[in-house]
Amino acid sequence: MPVKFQGVIPPIPTILHNKGKLDEKGMGALIDFLIESKVDGLFFLGSGGEFSQMPIALRKEVAAFAIRYVNGRVPVLIGTGTPSTMDTLELSHHAKDAGADGIVVINPYYWTLTEENLFKHYADIAEAIDLPILLYNFPGLTGQDLSPEFVLRLVKAYPNIVGIKETVESVGHTREMIYTVKSYKEDFAVFSGYDDHFLNTLSLGGDGSIPLTASFVPEFSVGIYQAFKKGDYKKAIELHRKLAPTLSLYKLDSPFVNVAKEAIALRGIDISTDVLAPARPLNEEKKAQIKSFLSQLLDESAVLVK
């Protein structure tokens, strides 16, 4: 069977204004820009979408708008993970009813769960939600890793668990995820979460990337994927070398959702750069650093607000 989700699926920053209200106009402009940039799907309410700062009602509003606005042009994934199995089920049911193509479920954070309790958490979701499910492994923020052996156990039990976003520092972890799980389920999709692991993930037999930088420089990730598929590895490497330094932008602030929004605005997309506390607006010095970085990164043909 072919992999259901593959390629470049950016995690979309949620565009907000008026003290945390959804900015539908700005959100639509960003969605259109990314679809026109030939991304392979869109992921809403991931880390870059500020899901962890949102009340459930806002998460549902964002999901419903995104699915409706995309209107089937590309696959839509909705992040539904929370520290609570009950809340995760509620958001997952909502995503299905709204028409999502799949859900992305990060493991519960705050508590470190026993492996059996973590398995039961995912089992409850997989049994209740008739949708493709991608796991989201981000141990740097959750405090708990999803090991390849654990993921294989889940995949053997629940065929609707179809992939994983691997936001891990270790290249070896992703390699073992690919070899361990794909040896059982060939169409299990393995995505890199860190942008600079994208090309390596593809070369190991992985399926794509879910990179935040693709929300503001999609041409690099999209170019890498298209070049790799064509066997133009020289071009893929050249683009990878351009893409890799963009991760330095993440060091400007934490959480770095404000950095992504400022970069999107500098690309000429008319959006508000408001963020949800505890994230805060960037100061002028950091805004200038982003502008300088993008000016050096992008060629003259790229849109960049002067």
Keywords:
306 residues; alpha/beta; nine-stranded parallel beta sheet; two-stranded antiparallel sheet; 44% helix; globular
Summarize, please:
With 306 residues, this protein is of the alpha/beta class.
Describe this structure in words.
The protein has 306 residues and is an alpha/beta fold. It has helices at 24-36, 56-70, 85-98, 115-128, 139-142, 148-157, 171-182, 198-203, 218-230, 233-243, 257-266, 284-297; strands at 7-8, 11-12, 16-17, 21-22, 42-44, 76-79, 102-106, 133-137, 161-166, 189-192, 208-209. Helix 7 (171-182) links the parallel strand 9 and strand 10 (189-192). The protein is globular, with a radius of gyration of 18 Å. The model has no long low-confidence stretch (mean pLDDT 95).
Blueprint of the fold:
Blueprint: E1 7-8, E2 11-12, E3 16-17, E4 21-22, H1 24-36, E5 42-44, H2 56-70, E6 76-79, H3 85-98, E7 102-106, H4 115-128, E8 133-137, H5 139-142, H6 148-157, E9 161-166, H7 171-182, E10 189-192, H8 198-203, E11 208-209, H9 218-230, H10 233-243, H11 257-266, H12 284-297
Helix pairs in contact: 1-2, 2-3, 3-4, 6-7, 9-10, 11-12
